[in-house]
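From: lab user (bench 3)
To: helpdesk
Subject: output format question, protein + magnesium ion

Hello, I'm new to running complex predictions and I'm not sure whether the block I got back is the full result or only part of it. Here's what I submitted:
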Amino acid sequence: MLAAQESGRVSGDAGLVAEETLDEAGSQPQQNNPLVRRALDPRAGVSTQRRLERDLKTAVREGGLALYYQPRLALASGAIVAAEALLRWPHPRLGLISPATFIPLAERTNLITEIGGIVLRGACLEAVPWLAAAPGATPPIVSVNVAARQITSGTLLGQIAAGLHASGLSPERLELELTESTVLEASLETTLTLAAIRDLGVGIALDDFGIGYASLATLKGLPLTAVKLDRSLIRALPEDREDAAIVQALVATGHALGLTVVAEGIETEVQRAFLAGIGCDEGQGFLFSHPQPASAFATRLMAMAGEAECG
Ligand code: C2E
Ligand code: MG
Ligand code: MG
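Helpdesk reply: Thanks, we reran it on our side. This is the complete output you should expect:
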């Protein structure tokens, strides 16, 4: 088992970059860097785009991607119950690039399936030290975003098995996040894959819920364990009465279906208090923490465990 302080340098084992490189890339994605904007502009010349594609391929093959973790808290107790693994690309020239920018590139170039395997394996390996970091308390689960192509290409189950096997992580401590569009296209193959994932004991959350078209009938037919309310619904809470009413209805719907309801993008104490007041189970957002490298997350867990022991 990896010690907590070693969790940041699992580059050899997990196929992710060493944390020293992350320090050089900065802690937040650099979307405002003019170099990044120019390189990622869809109107950029073919040669610029090709170069970026080549860079991404190199990063994937040579362990040049990193995972950051954002805690998810139980709104009633404030305990950390999960952490979402969020992919980052520390580009040697352009700094830290956000997944919102390079995931579409990965989908266009078919690298997404390979990236999905790296993320699952890396997240499982990096979550193992949290067991030691949260003594006494229930360790948080690790939640991993999954692209539709991982399911349609038939690779997802194998990637999960490989991640669990390499790390020894128990399946109950892993959760996958799928978006509405992934499950809406739910073919028989997708439904069977999701059922097999649940049979393993791995959780399944519906991400960005509430802004797409997932009907209640669709939700009912899927083996979900949680729904994550999209942060665009949380932004104007509680002043926006319509959003407040929608969120309240979605929390009730999630509960009626027996699911854990998580709010994304909580940025203010007023939003937290409103969501806790209407019975939303869990929350995630900048109010609690920005996404951070694995070792920083483990340090925070240890600090919380220490505070709990002291009283
Ligand atoms: P998501 O899964 O919905 O992740 C939540 C996003 O919201 C993250 O952006 C997170 O940094 C951001 N966020 C969290 N709290 C707040 C807040 O309080 N305010 C605001 N404004 N934003 C907040 P990020 O890391 O840029 O990721 C963007 C999207 O990229 C993710 O959305 C997910 O769909 C995708 N993604 C990330 N990692 C992976 C991955 O490993 N595989 C795949 N297929 N997609 C990924
Ligand atoms: Mg997510
Ligand atoms: Mg989301």
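A quick orientation on your result: The chain has a mean pLDDT of 86. Let us know if anything else is unclear.
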